[in-house]
Design brief:
The complex is a heterodimer. Chain A is an alpha+beta fold. Helix content of chain A is 36%, strand content 16%. In chain B, a hairpin with a 2-residue loop joins strand 24 and strand 25. The chains are: A alpha+beta, B alpha+beta.
Chain lengths: 153, 754
């Protein structure tokens, strides 16, 4: 067990855990930030996507010891004060069905739009192909991203 | 069709029926007992905020005006948690912003809660309309009494009863008085005219939408209760086989590990409730549990399915369907007609085992209490079944078990089975502490209740006049019941009614046959079940028949369907099952199937000329009482990469209760079908599943799924039918037929490999 001070959603929080603990389980078990989901544990489904210094990463596959002072943003962080424009676009398109993967989808979409304000279909496919949705909400994910882009996220 | 422990009958909503059903201790819809404080119908109305008007188990109106509506079916992504409450809200003229939806615990008092078989709306649309209308009438009666006017001068408008003079009283204010009134008889209830619907057939967004996009929505694994420990299990790769020995020395030495122990296995066929058994690790958090589990060394025993090889089994099934099987439906003489045919079109069709792989793996929180009771929080499709299973496993009464249903991170049939919840309860009892059980993705993919793999052979005879004169369809697949019953040798007739025996073509000589195939791994129902296999085969052979007859595929289909008629399958065979309802109530109407076909033809631009590498394919199928026609457009590039730019569905599901969610089910159903058609395959070798995660059990991603899907409704006022499963079956053959048009390659085996 070691102590780690993390910068999560603009807050500094110290937790004690094994250094190899994946960020996902630290978020969920210790910090009770359960908006970030477990889907595969091997970084192939995207359910656990969070931002590390603004870049979308799979939290199931990065140990706490590798994070240092990088800024972590989770789904709870993006809509903390008011809904993020991407969350609004998700609502406008009624994207979710079961909703389980949508935190990860939204985190990937925000990261995409922050790097590319006007993504093409190919850009969207490339950025979002790491996020599985078993309900198959892909059509609406695509249009929500386009709408969010149009509204200048 | 699917094992359903709860009473499946439709019940009418009336006090009389409640008394009748209640006396049997069965599934009463109405409690008929106003809850809350003592109420006197003659008392002066004070509008007390602590008043509670709860005339039935689904609807409660508080003195504050809040309307609490029970969602008694499980929300796994279909929108049912919104769509059934909105039916009640519409009939009772409630203000949707004042509605609070409460998820029901598992209890027979709510009627059937087995969220499965696409029947939530079908079964509950009418009863819940009556429930809502009853409440509205009682509120009107209360207001009429209060004003001492005739009830005909009163009407319900957006959460208020309004008098013709213009005065009004709010629902909350009326709750106290309405609660003292007797519940009206059903013949006093008037349902709304469809033109007056406020929510039904309109667009209502799902109740949990904002919670989902902000990460606040609570799924099974998100439940937090005090003193929770986390459990994970290492299971024998062969389902049902036991453990010879294990060594947990390393695991128990890890800080934070509470216990490592052996949970007994139940030999195959173990049914749907029994845990698979294995080595259980309990720890103070998930990561510690997972790491510890990894260090446990186990010597597995072998069970009766140790030699199961799904590839060899498929070859065996494929050989079997070359010969006549057990004839389950026969008209005329197909053998004779085939001899006289000038052309015979025949093909085999193969579908592998498939896994459900819901986005959220099976998981459950269980707390066995010191007083012997047990409380569960879990993503389950059938909370009453889970309640029974837990009671049985713990040796306690059902009344001592509480099942709280969380949101389900999709399910597709997997979360109907109680096994994983029973595991959690047994571990909690063993450990004497609350337990959160996690199934890893590897657990999920390697220990599922798999879709039946299936081999089929279809033979169609065409005579010298280009008329189709004979139809022979043979299918072999392991029965779902083989998971529970060692004597189940092959398909049951209920299972064959999903796409084989309910074949609608007007052909003189028909032989529908099944061949035995024994389950050697846990088999379960997956979204649309055996319709997946059978619609694939029929939709594909029909396209071949069209080609042989040199006919347009849609014209060919219309010709095969023949006259407009309601097919009396019960006269054609023994034991026909129409999705557990009577054919006279929900007939198989060829006219309705032809209508959706005509509609999809018009809307899809069928027949337009396409450049090389592009194709359009068609298929139509009725399943779960809903009629669906589908046209898929594909593009296949030089590297055989498949893109699906457009899908058109035309559907007849009766009154569309929440059209946006219906569209969503079809969009998602096409993507689900794309997974099954293009990607997914479970292989078993030596009794063990080879695939173990999304890196080798492949599913459709945004790059594979259709880019656009349009859904066209046939407008009518027929009784509503389900939409969760019906999108999947016709999509797959429509895609295969489109690929044929684009490439000339005929697909007879899933997943598609060009």
């Amino acid at each position: 067990m070691e102590k780690f001070t993390l910068n999560i959603n603009d807050q500094k929080i110290t937790i004690e855990c094994a250094p190899d603990t994946p960020l996902l389980w630290a978020l969920r078990d210790q910090l009770r930030l359960t908006g970030t989901k477990y889907g595969c544990g091997i970084a192939v489904c995207g359910s656990c996507t969070v931002h590390l210094d603004g870049t979308a990463i799979r939290s199931c596959s990065i140990p706490i010891s590798a994070i240092n002072d990088k800024a972590i943003t989770t789904i709870e962080g993006v809509g903390k004060d008011r809904l993020h424009p991407v969350q609004k676009a998700w609502i406008a398109e009624n994207v979710p069905q079961c909703g389980f993967c949508q935190s990860g989808q939204i985190m990937s979409a925000i990261a995409l739009l922050e790097q590319n304000g006007n993504p093409s279909d190919a850009d969207i496919e490339q950025a979002m192909s790491g996020n599985i949705c078993r309900c198959g909400t892909y059509i609406r994910i695509r249009s929500a991203i386009k709408n969010a882009a149009k509204n200048n996220v | 069709m699917k094992p359903n422990p709860s009473n499946n009958k439709l019940f009418k909503v009336s006090r009389r029926d409640f008394v009748k059903i209640g006396a049997l201790g069965s599934t009463g819809l109405f409690l008929g007992v106003p809850l809350g404080c003592k109420q006197d119908k003659n008392a002066f109305l004070t509008g007390r905020e602590d008043a509670v008007f709860a005339p039935n188990v689904y609807i409660t109106i508080l003195g504050t005006g809040e309307v609490q509506l029970i969602a008694h079916r499980s929300e796994m992504g279909t929108g049912i948690r919104t769509s059934l409450p909105l039916v009640m809200a519409d009939e009772m003229e409630a203000d949707w912003t004042k509605v609070k939806i409460i998820q029901a615990v598992g209890d027979v008092k709510y009627g059937d809660q087995n969220t499965d078989g696409s029947y939530s709306v079908r079964m509950f649309y009418q009863p819940l309309r009556v429930a809502g209308a009853t409440v509205k009438l009682m509120l009107m009666q209360a207001a009429a009494q209060e004003w001492q006017v005739d009830i005909s001068e009163c009407s319900a408008v957006n959460h208020e009863i309004v008098h013709s003079s213009g005065k009004s009283l709010g629902y909350g204010y009326l709750a106290e008085k309405a609660g003292a009134l007797p519940i009206p008889e059903e013949n006093e209830i008037t349902l709304k005219d469809s033109k007056d619907f406020k929510f039904i057939s309109k667009e209502t967004v799902i109740y949990d939408l904002e919670d989902i996009v902000t990460g606040k929505a609570v799924y099974g694994l998100d439940v937090q209760i005090p003193d929770l420990k986390v459990a994970v299990i290492k299971r024998n790769p062969e389902a049902g086989a036991g453990i010879k020995s294990f060594n947990s020395d390393m695991a128990t030495a890890i800080e934070g590990v509470s216990k490592v122990y052996k949970m007994e296995s139940t030999a195959f066929p173990m049914g749907y409730n029994a845990p698979l058994g294995g080595i259980v690790v309990v720890a103070n958090n998930t990561w510690t549990a997972l790491k510890a589990l990894d260090t446990v060394e186990v010597v597995w025993d072998k069970g009766i399915n140790a030699s199961y090889d799904s590839n060899a089994f498929m070859q065996q099934m494929q050989r079997s369907v070359q010969k006549e099987g057990q004839v389950k439906r026969q008209q005329g003489s197909a053998t004779k007609a085939l001899k006289e045919a000038t052309k015979v079109i025949e093909s085999d069709f193969l579908v592998p085992h498939l896994a459900h792989s819901p986005m959220e793996t099976p998981c459950a929180v269980a707390r066995c209490n010191a007083d012997g009771t047990c409380e569960i929080w879990a993503p389950v499709q059938s909370p009453q079944w889970v309640r029974q299973a837990i009671a049985e496993a713990l040796g306690i009464e059902e009344s001592e078990v509480t099942i709280n249903v969380t949101l389900l991170g999709s399910a597709f049939g997997r979360k109907s089975k109680p096994d994983f919840v029973v595991e959690a309860a047994l571990i909690s009892k063993e450990m004497n502490t609350p337990i959160k059980l996690l199934w890893t993705r590897e657990d999920d993919i390697q220990h599922d209740f798999y879709h039946s793999n299936c081999a089929q052979h279809i033979k169609v005879g065409i005579d010298k006049n280009n008329k189709v004169t004979s139809w022979v369809h043979r299918t072999a697949f392991p029965s779902i019941s083989g998971t529970a019953n060692a004597d189940a040798k092959g398909p049951s007739s209920d299972e064959l009614c999903m796409g084989v025996l309910d074949m609608p073509f007007e052909i003189d000589n028909i032989s529908c046959e099944s061949l035995d195939a024994k389950a050697q791994i846990r088999i379960g129902w997956l979204r649309s079940v055996h319709n997946i296999n059978h619609a694939f085969a029929i939709g594909s052979i029909v396209d071949q028949v069209a080609q042989a007859r040199e006919m347009d595929p849609i014209d060919n289909m219309m010709d095969l369907l023949g006259s407009d008629r309601k097919i009396d399958f019960t006269a054609l065979m023994e034991g026909f099952n129409n999705y557990n309802v009577k054919l006279e109530d929900y007939p198989y109407d060829t006219h309705r199937l032809k209508q959706v076909i005509q509609l999809v033809k018009e809307k899809s631009g069928w027949g337009k000329s396409l450049p090389e590498g592009k194709g359009m394919g068609f298929a139509a199928h009725r399943s779960f009482l809903t009629y669906v026609a589908c046209v898929v457009e594909v593009e296949v590039d030089d590297n055989n990469n498949i893109k699906i730019p457009m899908v058109h569905f035309a559907i007849d599901c009766g009154v569309p209760v929440n059209p946006d969610r219906i569209r969503a089910q079809f969009e998602g159903g096409a993507a689900f079908g794309a997974s099954l058609a293009l990607k997914s395959e479970i292989n078993v070798k030596n009794g063990a599943v080879i695939e173990d995660n999304f890196n080798n059990y492949l599913v459709a991603r945004i790059t594979d799924a259709p880019i656009n899907t349009a859904v066209h409704f046939v407008e009518n006022e027929e009784k509503p039918t389900g939409v969760g499963e019906p999108p999947v079956p016709p999509f797959i053959p429509a895609l295969c037929n489109a690929i044929f048009m684009a490439t000339g390659k005929r697909i007879t085996r899933l997943p598609i490999k060009l």
